[in-house]
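Internal tracking record. Fields below are filled automatically when a chain is submitted to the structure queue. Please do not edit lines marked as system-generated. If the sequence contains nonstandard residues, flag them in the REMARKS field before resubmitting.
Queue: standard
Priority: normal
Entity type: single polypeptide chain
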Amino acid sequence: MHKTFRALGAAGALLCFTTTIAVAQNNSDHNATSIAGASNSGAYSPGNAGNRRGGFPAVTAATVANEERVLAGGSAAERQVGAVLSGGSSVALANALIGAGAPAAQVNALMAALTNLGANPSPEAERSAVRAYNDLVHTASAAFVNNPPPQIMAIRAALVAIRAGHA
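SYSTEM-GENERATED OUTPUT FOLLOWS
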């Protein structure tokens, strides 16, 4: 039952915390979803670390640890994300994303941000991870955007759960 409520909570959070963007690739538009959380989204803005506008709970070590436990019992993609948040190796996750067409520089930045979020849970670390995720989505190939790998979806779900405090 807990998994059902978590899935419903994550689905609701996705509706609340996502925006659709157009990614221009090869002279056409492709829709990709990014997590609202960039400096202009209204969820957080630069310089107001303690201000939780919109009623978002503070990012805490407990929230991140709870999400790590959930991910550890999930799919292979979720376990890869949980391993990075837990301070483990990011090689498998990074290779899966790059192999699916994500740009290496943005993948490396996202891996560093996720590692930092796991090691130093804070609103700033969460914002950094969301920005890195959004940067990766915005710069990814059309193939990646049109057929996202399960790893990027697992990262997205984890970030949404951590932001919403539903982990």
